[in-house]
Structures are given as C-alpha cells and as structure tokens.
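seq:
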Amino acid sequence: MIKIVAGKYGGRILETPKGRDIRPTTNRVREALFSSLYNYIEGANVLDAFAGSGALGIEALSRGAAHVCFCDTNTNTVKKNIEKLKIDNYEILQCDTFNHNFIDNFNLVFLDPPYKTSLEQIMDLIESLKKNENLTENAIIIYEHDNNIVVPNSYKTKRYGNIVLDFIGA
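struct:
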C-alpha cells in the first residue's frame, strides 16, 4: 500500500500500476527523501519523470510544490490518483520521457525509471535536460535505482536496502 506521507494529502492511499516490473517508491524511502528536501520543496517546479502512480510528484504537491509535470508512457494510474485527491497545479504528459522536449524550467526532478534502464540512458536524459535549459541554475535531480549502479557526478548518495537515491546537481 502506497500512501502520501505528509502535508496536505498526508495519509491518503494511492492506487499503483500493476505489473511485475512496477516498484513504486516505498513510503519509508519517500519519507526520508522529502525530509532531506524539506527546505527545497516550497514553491518548487517539479518534474516527476517515469511517474507511475505519481507518488513522488503528489508528495511534492502535498508538501508545498507550486507545480508538477507528471510524465510517463502510461498515465492512467496517475490520472486516477490526481482525480481522487482533487489536485490542481499539475500537467500530465503521456510520452516517452527519453524522447520528449520539455518546455518548463524545473528546479526539482525525480527520475524513477524501470530498473532495466541503463545508466547511459539516464545520463543522456540529464544532459538533454541541461542542454535544453529545462533546469534552473540550482536544480536538484534525484535518480532512484538499485544498488548495483554507481552514478558519476552525484554529490550525495542515500541507501535504503536495495534502493539507492543519487542526488545530482544541474
């Protein structure tokens, strides 16, 4: 069961996509992540790439983010969760995150791709966001992956069992 940990929507239960390759960010990991971002969320413009259920973006909105862009190839579940919680200040893009030209400038980016995604694909996506000026000067990118990947240029790494969060600056 995935639920929003804190804020305006705290305690609300979210639907999750079905499938063996789906692994939503756990409540414990989201709680730790957002505790570390406490001073950075208020007013943030957020990209929740590979959104799935939308849990990361909804958690950000719940804690005071100004706007979230949810992006995934299948947006059915995130749409259901947004409607259920009556959320505003969002945009949903049903597209391939790797091949989309974003127009926003984000100061917070969550990358939670399927674990089969290569590090090279993620680094190319980050470079594309930088090259296309989709990141503000002090943007933070959080990349969630399993523990067998070492991310270059990460300024902070947090480990939670087999889940790793790498923090990458713009």
